[in-house]
Fold this protein.
Amino acid sequence: MKSMLKDAGILFAITLVAGLLLGCVYQITKEPIARQEALAQENACREVFSDAESFEAVTDFTEEAAQTVLNEGGYSTASVNACQEAKDASGTVLGYVLTVTTHEGYGGDIQFTVGVRNDGTLNGISLLSISETAGLGMQAGDVLVPQFADKNAYPYVYTKTGSTADNEIDAISGATITTNAVTNGVNAGVYYFQTMLQQGAGEGAANE
C-alpha cells in the first residue's frame, strides 16, 4: 500500500512539473510565434499587393458569413479564411487581399492569397499551402500562378488546348484536378469580392 502511494506521489509530481514547464515554454514562445505569424501574413499580403502601404483586417469579416455567401454562389468547395484591406500611404483602400482555401486539390486543401483591386483586377495569387503530386500538381506555382496576374475576366476557366481568351487558364499537363481546384478557388475569391466588397469600395455592383 505504501509503495503504491509512493509511486502515485512520484507520478503526480512528474506530471505537475511537466505541466508547469510546458506552461512556461508556452508563455515564453507565445509572443514570438504571434509576431512571426503576423509577419508571415503581411509578407503574404505584399506578395499580391506590393504597392500597398499597409493592410488592415476587415472588421466585420467572419469565415462563417463568408461561407454562406460562397455556398449561395455555388462555391461550396472553397472557403475565404481572411479578408484584409490594402491601403496606400493616405489610408485610401486600393483593394483587398483574400486568403482562400480550395478543398478540391488532388492531395488535399490548397491555400493561397489573392489580391483584388477595387475594379476587380487581380494583382495575382500567392500559394501558401499545397501538397499536390510532385512533378504534376506541384507545378502550380510555376504554371498557374503567373497566369492570374493583371487579369479582370471573371469567371475564369481552364483549357487543355491553349488559352485564346483573357479568362482562360492553361491547365498543368497531367494535373487538371489541381488546375480546376485553383481556378475554382480564384473564382470563389472574386465572387466574394464582387458580392460583399466591391460596392463598399465605391465601384458599383459587380458585372457578372
